[in-house]
Every structure is written in C-alpha cells, then in structure tokens.
Design a protein that fits this description.
homotetramer, 412 residues, alpha+beta, Butyryl-Coa Dehydrogenase, subunit A, domain 1, Butyryl-CoA Dehydrogenase, subunit A, domain 2, Butyryl-CoA Dehydrogenase, subunit A, domain 3, 3 domains, 4-stranded mixed beta sheet, 4-stranded antiparallel beta sheet, 11 helices, 11 strands
C-alpha cells in the first residue's frame, strides 16, 4: 500500500501557498502603508483617540485608490471577498502601522461589526447599516461591556435591560470601554430581554442610531492604548426606545451572535497585531544594526541577539497559528473547534506580540521609551490587547474547561 | 477587481487538511502505539539505553504487520513515501510513546541517516547501507560530535582527521555522545579531509562498518535521557582505514551534507516530541480529572487550569509550526528559508514540549516525580532535547544573525 | 529630631554580619565538603537512594572530627545550638554537595524530625528518640503523605486512622513517598484520631519503631530524585498497635505539630538547595571560562553571560530571602508571619534553584546532560523540590488567601 | 565548642529589626502619603512631567510639617541623617505614591545629586548647591546621557568635551533624557577633559548654572513615563564656559564619581519602586476582593490567586535584596561588593516591580488599562525603570563579567 511517493506530494493537502492575487493585494497594502500611512502615523504619533475624521477620510481615500479598501467584505459591499486566510495575509500588512487598518477599513470595531451584520443582519438592515459602514461613510460601535457588577470578562453578568414597549423595546443600562462610540453612526447594543444577570441566555442585540433619545455618551475614558480611532467611551441608555425592526437577528439569541462576532474578530485582531510586532522588530533591527556600543554593533551582542531571535520565533509561531485558525474558521466559523483555536490563538498572539514589542523597547533603550520612535505607543497598545476581547486568564479558563471536558468524554 | 468570493475559497491555498490515506495511517499508528507499544514502554519504564534487541524486533514486527513501518522511505526501500507533511502527521502519533518511533522505524538517529543516505548516497551505497537499515535489519549511528575542543555546538571545530592513504583514508579522532553506536552496523563519520579545526569547510563523510580495525567503542555515557535505543557512546578512531568507495557523496562536502541531514532531522525530532507532549498532557488530564483535593477535582482549580491551558496552547502552536516548516521543507529542503524555519521550530518545540511535560509533572505532584507514571522519564528526555541537535542558544544565535543580515540587505 | 547621623549607624538594626564563630563553622564545613564529601559524591554519582550505611558512617565520622556535626541541635544532644540564622550560613555550605547534609547530620528528614522532637517531645521521648538520632546512631522518617484520595498537598484529607485500644492505639493506613523509611529506626506517623477525612483537625502523631508488628515497608518508589538517603518508600500500617507513651505531644494536635515541623523544615531545605545552586553555577563557570567555541570562551558570549548573571541574581535573592525568614523564625517560629515568609521563601528558592541548575545544564551542553559532571543529578533533585514540602501551587494558594484576608481585614 | 545556644541568639548578627525611631518616621511618611500626597496624585493622574512648581511647593511644605522632609541628608542640611537602611524603610513608604518622593525631597535626580555633592563637593560648593537643594529651594539635573554615538549604556562613549580656557573650561556637546532639566537651578555635567570617546578615563564633572550662556534646553522629550518632575529634556552645551571653581571634585575623576552617585542612586530607585509595587498590589487586591465574576470574588479564582501570590513573593524578595544591599552600602559605598549587589538588586527589583504592576493591571482588566485607577500610569513608569540607570542587559553583562573574573581568580 503506497500512500504517496515523493513525486506525488500533491496528495498531502497541508499548504502554505499564498495565491498570486492575494500576494498582490498584500504587496499593494504594504506599499500603501509604507508610502502613505506611516508618514501620517508618525505625524500624529500613533494616537487616534481624538477621532480626527479628516485623517480617516484622507487615509481611506488613498486605500480606495490603491484598490485595497475593505478587502474582507463581499463585492456587493464594495469589497474583495477575502476569506479568513486571505485576510490573514493582508491584515498583517495593514497592521504594520497603527493606522493601516483604519485606512483599509478593517479596523476594530467596524470590521467585526461588518462581519456580524453580514452574517446576522436582514437584507434591510444590511442595506441600512452595513453598506455605508463598508463604504467608510459611517462608523459604528459594539456596546457589550458594562461597569461592575455587569458584563465584563463574564458576559452572562449582562445587566442592561431591554423591556417590551409598544412597537419596540426600551433599553436601560450603562456600558463602558465602548470603542469608537464617539462619532459612531450607530451602536450594536447587547441587552437582556429575558432572565436575570448571571443567566446564560436571554440577551438580544439592538441597532441604536446615534441621536436616538436616551442614548448618551457620558465621557471618554483615558486608557493606556490610544491607537483606536475615537478611543473608548462610557455610554448610558436611559429609557432609550428602539423600534422592533432594529433588533439584530432574533430576540434572545444575543449571546449566540456575540460568538459569531467574537471568534473571527479575535483572530483579525491577531492578524493586525502581528503586523505591529513585525514593525517593532524592524525598528529594533534598524537600531541594533546601526547603533554601536561596547566596541561593536548592538546586533552583534549576544543578549541582543537572543531578543531578536526570540522575537522572530514569536512572530513565526504567531503567523503559523493565525493561518491554522483562519483555515479552521473558513471551514466553519461556528463550530467549537474554531472557537477553541481562536481562543488559543488570541492568548498566544496577544502575549507573543507583547513580548516582541517589549523586547524591541528594551533593545532601543532610552529611545525605546521615548516617542521619538513609536515603540512606546505600540507597547501601550499591545499591553491592552492582553485584556480586551477576553483577558488571557478568561480564555485560559475556558480553554482548560474544554480540554478537561473533552478528556472526560474520551475516557468515558 | 475581485479576488475571491466567499464561495470561491479554493483560490486561497493555505490548507490544513489531512488526506484520508494519511489520516488512516495516523489512526493505525495510534492504534499500534496504544495496543502494542505502550504496554512494552510501561514494562521497560521508557528506558531503552540498554539496547535490548529483542524488544526492538518484537515492536518492529508488530509495526510491519500493522502496515506502518518506515513510512517515510520510498517504496523501493519498503516504505510508503510520505513527504515531510505526511511524516508530521504520522510521527506525532508514533511519538505518543517513547518506543513508538523505534517500532515504526522512524527513530533517531536511523531516520535521519536513512534520509541522508537516500539523498547523498550512490546506488551502491544505498543498496549496501540504506536497504537493510530501512528494513530494520540493521541500525546505524552518526558520528559528528567531539569532546572539547572539537566539534560541538560549533561544527567547524571538527578535529577528527581523515588522511589520504593508498586506496582510501585513515581516520583518527574521538567522538562522543554518539547515539545508538553500541550495536550499530555502521557509523556515518564526519572527518576533516582538508583545512584545520575552525575552518568553515574541509569535512567529508565516511561510512565505517562496525568491526573495522581501529573503530572502537570506548564507553557508554550515562545521560539524563534514557529513551534512545542503545543510548549514547564515546568512540575512537585510531588509524581506522576505510576504502575510497565508503566515502559518502564527495570529498570535502561534509558540512554541506550535514545540513541536508540536520534541517529535516531537527523537524522529525519535533514531530516525535510533540507526541510525548500530548501524552504528558493526557496523563496530567487523567490525574487532574479524577484526583480530588481541597473539595473538588484538581482540574477545576484555577492554577491547574492555567497549566492545562498553557500546555494546550503550546501543543497547538508547536503543531502549527511543524506543519508550516514541513511544507517549506517539502518545497525545497535545502534553501535557506527551510533551514531558518527549521531552526526556529526546533527551538520553539523543544522548549514548548519541555514546558508541557514540566507542567504535567507539577500537576501530578509526587506521582509526577515518581516512575509510577512515565512523566519523570519524559521530563528527562525533553530536557535533553533542548541541548541536542543544536542547543537553543546556538540556534538563537544563528537565527539572529540571519535576521540581522536580511534586515541589513533590505535596508541597503 | 535627629534619628541617626551617618556616624551613628548602629541605631539602624538591619544587619547581615556573620559572626566570626559562625563564619569559622561555615569555613570548616566548606573544607569538609570540598576535601571529604565531594570525592565520595562523585564516586557514588550523587545517588544515595540505595541507603549505603557505610557511606553515611564514613562521612559522619569525618564531620564529627571536623567539629561540624549536627550543628543545629543544642549541646545536650551533641550539637552547637545554632539558631536558624546560623543554620542558614552553615547549611548552605553543607548543601554544596548532595552528601554534605548527610555528613553533617542536617539532612532531611532527620533534621526536621530532630527539631520536632526537640520542641514537642517529652523528656522521655527525647532521650529515647532524639538523642541517638542527633548522634547519627539512628535514622528516622516522617510518615504523613498518603496515596489518593488521602493526605497530599491537602493534609486534611488524612485517611490513616488510629483507633483506641487498651493501653494504646491501633494504626491502619497506607503512606507513600516516605523519605528515608528503609532502614529508619522509627517513623513519626500522622494518623487521624478523630473526625473524618477532610476535617481540619483530629490528627495525632505517633512514634512507631521499626519492627513493630503491622508496620510494613511495601516497596521503594523509583523517583526522579535520588539524592535522599534511602530514597522514598511506600509503607503500610496494618493493625499496628503502639502504646500510649509513644504519642508525640498530645492527642488531636497533630496538624498543629506538623506546622511546627514544616515551617523551619521548608527553610532548611532552601538553605541546602542554595548550596547546590551555587555548586551548579560554579560547575557552569568552570566550563564556560575554559571551553572555547565560535572563537572565544563561552563565558564571553552574551547569551551565556545572561544565564550566568540571572543565576547569580537568583542566588543572591534566595540568600537574602533565606536570611530574612531565618531571622523571623528566630523571633518566633510559630507566628503566622514566619509561616507566611517561609511559604514564600520555599516557592521562591525552589524555583530559583531550579532555574540556576537548569541554566547550568544548558551552558554545559551535552556535558550537562551527561553524568560526567553531576549537573543532571542536581537537576533531578531540584525539580523534585518544586513538588515536595508543598508544591509551589499549593503554597501560592495559601499565600494568596492570607494576603487577601489581610487586605480585607485592613480595609474593614 | 559551643557557638550559640538557642538562648544566646544575640551572637548571630543577621537582623531585620527596624528601630522605633525609623519605624516612627516610616509611619509618619505613610500617613503623609495617604492623607496629603495621594489625593494630589489622583488629581494630577500621576503625571508630573509638566513640572508644576505649585504642586511641588504644597507637597514639600506638608512633608516639612510632618517632619519627614529630606530624611536622607545630614542635619546640617536640614535632614535626619538616615543611612541607606533607614532610607530603605522610609523611601518605600514615600514611594507608595508617585509624588511621595517629590514631597519628601528624596526623588530622582535630586536625591542622587545631593548624595554626590555631599560626598564629592567642597564646602564652598556644598554651601552654594547642596544647601538650597536639600531645602527644596532649588532643583537640579544630572547631565550624562548623550544621543548616539555618545554615552549611553556605555558611559565611556562620552563625547561632550570640556576644553581648557583661561580661568575655566568651555563645554561643548549634546545631552538627552536629562531628567528634571526644565526648571533646574543647575546641572551636574559630565564632559571629557582628556582622551577620546571610548576611553575608560578622562571625564570631569562640572556644575553649570541655569542661565549660563551656551547652556540651552532644546526640547522636552515625550516618554512613556511621566511621573518624574519636569520630565526628560534634551540640552546642548555650545561654547558654554564655566569657571574653575565649578569643577566638582577633581579633574579627570568623573567616571569614578559617577559610580559614587550611581550605586546608591540605583538602590534608592529600587526603594521607591518597591513602594509603587505595593501600591499596585493593593489596588489589585481592592478590586479582586470586591469584584465578582463567574459566581465568586476574583480573589477566590485560582488564576488570580496565582498572580497575587507571585506579586507578594516579588515584593518580599525585592525588600530582602534592598535591605541586604543597603547594609552593604552602609559598610562601604565604594567597594566592589556594594556595586555588584547594587547592580543585581537593580535588575531584580526593576523586573519584579514591573511584573507586580503588570499583574495588577491584568487582574483589574479593563479598569487596569484605563486611568480610572493609576495602574496604567505605574505600568509606564516601571517599564521605563528597566531601561534607565542602566538597562537590565547592561547590568547583566557587567554582573556576568565580574562573576567570571572572580571565578577565574579563585581557580587560578
């Protein structure tokens, strides 16, 4: 019985080939980032929390002209229909600058919201909300996290309520760390339509337009990271009434939809942060290969070499995991294998990217903690990534529970 | 310009599919390991350094009968012609027991030696040496490492010499940590045919039969690891003369051939140790899901969960890197990208497998440091793997140099 | 208000001065270890689990002659009355060889048992058990740990029972990982005299002589570590009756006495393992300062320097913590501050010593995993130390609970 | 020969007792920090880089009134004459807030400059510069670090020159990351008076008054840390002439004096950052003991407990090392043992404090990366501490070289 000769390798299907079309997109994205985006990034020092729309408009126009705009959306929304693997290749290039994803319209939270709307939204809602969002005409936010004792790492603690009123729902509650809320055209709001805080079900998603009475932005929250457009805000829903047709999907299926959004959104975060990790490594290499100390280049000192090598390994391991998980999500985004892999990849890449940037800061010394280079900015961003989209600890807890359950099942 | 619709995913070539034929081999290998190999492993407590040939014969016969013997060799040598990706899938299953690779004839150092002979050996040498080796009729060793100040982490320090004599070469020198030397039918010996110790070139490989005058086994070296068949020995070449036709490949190309052997051999090591990492995790899970302490199962304690999750992530990241590098080696085993990836994967998997086994020991507590389970054996094996086939530090040094060189080239 | 001039430093009482008498003892201990103990250690390759009494006798005689025998015991038991701080200085010197503590009669478990007997034992029991033990005429063991689901990391799970019989108690149960049991003259046995497994109280300690009917050694357990004299055994009490006067201390106070033993015993372990950490670092330095690779000495390569520096820092930090905790124990061995510090020091030193030995192995490469030097032996010993005397995880759990409780109290 | 009975413990001199007077100072410092300093810290969000003198004046007046002002200086300069051990106790309390050291006038760089002036300065210079500095009437800066390729981690690269002119010296060069330069009354400037960049000697220290022609502040450097008063600036000396009597100490002994300043200054940094580490742990405990998730308090989850325990151990180990090194510096601040210990303690505490703050951020989740609590500020400060006062890598390099040299000497 002969499985495969060395001449018949095609029978083994594990592949890492990037098709020419995707490679071309990646190259064009990289060019855009290098020539257009990075100069802007340097000028604004990587900080976007003020939400300057003129910056966004300029960058997105350049991306449109370069043919790399909103590549993840299907053509009917102006995109190129890249699946997760294609996104993995292209988003890494966009992520090489903090502003790259904004330029190519694949930044959080809009990118995840587009995906959610595409999968769950009715044709009417897609037309109303997804189309302008994909076009870059609007921005959006995703309002799930609440102050203690509400929904945080534990989503079941959801405390915001949506109560039945004539022709619609009245939403009451408080949300915070809502990214991109300032200036967003609408919010996707998670509220409890049945049960009580702590229950595993009973959540519903609502589309709430900016300007709806009772939907108030309370304050902007100062945070360690400042690279997300318009930053993070605290918002309040105070007798905010939305009509029935602004329910996203079906009533009481909100937690389920959250998973639809979160598993791929976690991975696209990883893709983008892999770009920043590479950028940080490149900055460190640029410094280490030109700066002399103790009679030679830094890059020739063993302790620096160790950091460079460790970062390179972290980058390669991250990419391998991202590709693997992207493939799994492309098979089926909703099965448990994909969620499990996406959790593991999120923990790994968040911590690996953090280590890479941390080492790059260390290699550059005083320069690394200054803002003369952007490393200190990147450092703050990747530190935050270990917390948002599920803190590492919460993911580990979920991962361990699944592993133990699987083991018990196999053994039983 | 539309690259790929979600309906047209086939254009994106990143794939992790295991073809049915390989999956079938993997399943049969797993069955063999579970039903035949592990009982023997437990009986001998994972120790093979005594080189008991009756154990080898029995296990290999079982593998032949199961149709999973020497799967990596081409059919003309009795194998199934699996490429590196196929090996990645199957060797992980074999590696689930310390004795699995011995059973399926893919254990070090024979597996790497077969590969070297296949690629470099003349038809005559392949017939004489490779055929019986692939059949399991003989064993072999690879004699490169020398005591200080000879070839170790730095192969250029090669001090063993081969001097021209009539009709052949006279080899003089000392080698140690030569795995599997006791009982080997022949050694592949690296000796210097030109230049002096420290030179980057000038090495040649020789095939030296056991029993050749002047080829002496001096002693067996006690080592932390004991899972390699016949252990590690110190050998001496003292005016050992071999005829010209026992030169492997061409004179003075030994360092180059060493790379032919090392890049894939490093990766097959990783495949096998990934199997042990999974085994260790399974043992720990078996304990944690049944042992109670402090009022619940260990598997429900947060600190144990953290270790289980970290190990699961290490296992998945290792597998992703192995697949990625296997694919690259299948494209071209000798280009620098493959060598670079293989170095990085070796460092990552050696340290990840080590962490997994270390955590499994810790979870099992006193039982973990006993030999009532085999974790303490595995622990010793994976500790050694951080040293052999290039210590992590040496690989990191080489990785950093390549990365810096690439950076300088790109920038120039 | 002037506290202290620079000329008046004596008012500040933090001191690290080692008095001349203790320094002299330390020097003599170091000489004994270097000249007498290490040659024996090399001969037996650091393995003592076979319990060769002729080795023990020879080493202890040498220590007696050097005036450094059983220095921790009061003079009435032939010792020198060193308090914990004095022990910290001297035990580190003894610990520089795996056999040093055996020679100077401060090895586990005898050293901890002596301390327990001294504090808790009646004059009669001290005369009968402590005196010959301190003199090196006998050995002892401490029988607490049980197989699942009995007492392990969680001592309250104690399942061995002692039932009232006329004139004494009948002990029934199984213990394992009982260090030094083979050849011990007596065991200090923890058994439940009231309540049920899981209760926080109800344990009593018994002195059971070897040879008492029903006290059986079932088997020796093979373990990763082999440096403890006579290794670890599994024992059974099967209707083993002991008279009332062999109760150690009072009935039902066993858990309390266990703490009397454990807090200082954990620290003396740390003192001894600090010695091994220093030894491992010295072996690595000996290799790194003489072995050349890549054109220079290993000790001049940055990655090796990093490991040397990290190990030096681990050694210094360990010593500082040991001194600090020794001082605290000398103030009061039983208050909670001492127990808390002793837990933290155990975790820190166990892991630091492990890291030091692990790095030393790595620096020495193939030699490090051989038994040509003793590093691979030390590695196995320090790995086990992360488990026994409370696994790191259990200590961390207890530490965190105390810290949180303290915080809640302060805030309330 | 009896060394010490347990009744005679006083003969062992290792002590950790804090005398009542120092304990009283520590308590009063803690009260000041809690009642006066922290409210200000919260108001300004821990950021002092703007150098608001009204904040400084208010805080320092409160410290004077509390009798805890400039405790490290001798009475003739208005201080309390605390030695390093006394400082260790008191500075930790001051460091519990980022503004505490500013309040008690023990903040960098003034505190180190005072020490340098006290030890090296002539009576005239001490009167002119030290007296107002100790009184809080002026501030100062220490101008050593230069942009590439000048003095950085490698001080011998010093490029700023001082050239002999009539009656004085003309200084030319550029310095950056000069902490506290904006608003400083004077700078202590390191300039080369002989030799060339790269030489081990030839540096001299000069006192340069603000306003001296040719002494220009070029810009403020944005850095990750913002807790140092007046931040870090870039300054230029352009034909800046200073008279002979402003030479600090003797010509050409600048490198030697730098060590006088650096060894203790590194340690006082550690003392202060230990305070912040404790503060971060307290914030995390406050959150973990009151915030519920997954059905209980965070403080009862195993993964959180692990972080709490690890931080507690880091804090205790840091304190033990600080006390140890403080004692050594009090014996002799200039011998090599003190410098060696101070290097090791700097590396350890910088990394330990960083780990503690990092864990605290993680425990607090989204709140931890916001500025609603000050953790994100602390995080940025401690990250920078791994770089300034010698990056960890440079210290490790120096530590390893000393350790290897010592080993070679002992063996020779």
């Amino acid at each position: 019985m002969i499985i495969s000769y060395r001449e018949q390798r095609a029978t083994v299907s594990i592949e890492f080939t990037v098709p020419d079309e995707v490679a071309d997109l990646a190259a064009r994205t990289a060019t855009l980032v290098r020539e257009v985006v990075i100069p802007v990034e340097i000028r604004v020092r990587g900080a976007l929390h003020d939400g300057d729309e003129s910056v966004r408009a300029k960058l997105q126009q350049a991306a449109r002209e370069a043919g790399v705009f909103c590549q993840q959306m299907p053509p009917e929304y102006g995109g190129l229909g890249l699946d997760m693997r294609g996104q993995a290749v292209v988003f890494e290039q966009a992520g090489y600058s903090l502003l790259g994803p904004l330029a190519t319209n694949c930044a959080a939270p809009d990118e995840g919201n587009m995906h959610l709307l595409e999968v769950v939204g009715s044709p009417v809602l897609r037309e109303r909300y997804l189309k302008p969002l994909a076009a870059g005409d609007t921005r959006s936010c995703f309002a799930m996290t609440e102050p203690a004792p509400g929904a945080g790492a534990d989503p079941r603690a959801l405390a915001t309520t949506a109560t039945r009123v004539a022709g619609g729902w009245r939403i009451d509650g408080r949300k915070w760390f809502i990214s991109g809320a300032r200036g967003a055209a609408f919010a996707i709001v998670m509220a409890r339509t049945s049960g009580v805080a702590g229950d595993a079900g009973g959540a519903t998603m609502f589309l709430v337009d900016a300007g709806t009475p009772g939907f108030k932005l309370v304050r902007d929250i100062d945070t360690m990271d400042q690279g997300l457009f318009a930053g993070h805000s605290e918002i309040v829903f105070d007798e905010c009434v939305v009509p029935d047709d602004q329910v996203l999907g079906e009533v009481d299926r909100g937690f389920e939809y959250a998973q639809v959004r979160l598993a791929p959104a976690r991975l696209t975060h990883c893709m983008r942060w892999l770009g920043i990790a590479r950028r940080a490594q490149d900055i460190a290499l640029g410094y280490a290969t030109t700066r002399k100390a103790f009679g030679g280049y830094l890059a020739d000192l063993g302790m620096v070499q160790q950091q460079i090598a460790d970062s390179e390994i972290d980058i390669e391991a991250s990419r391998a995991m991202i590709y693997r998980t992207a493939w799994q999500l492309d098979q089926s985004a909703t099965d448990s294998a994909a969620g499990h892999l996406s959790s593991m990849t999120k923990v790994f890449v968040a911590e690996a990217a953090y280590r890479v940037v941390d080492r790059s800061v260390q290699i550059c010394g005083a320069l690394g903690i200054s803002e003369d280079v952007l490393l200190s900015r990147y450092f703050r961003e990747v530190r935050a990534f270990r917390v948002y989209d599920g803190p590492s600890d919460t993911h580990r807890w979920a991962i361990a529970k699944r592993v133990s359950r699987r083991h018990r099942t196999v053994e039983a």
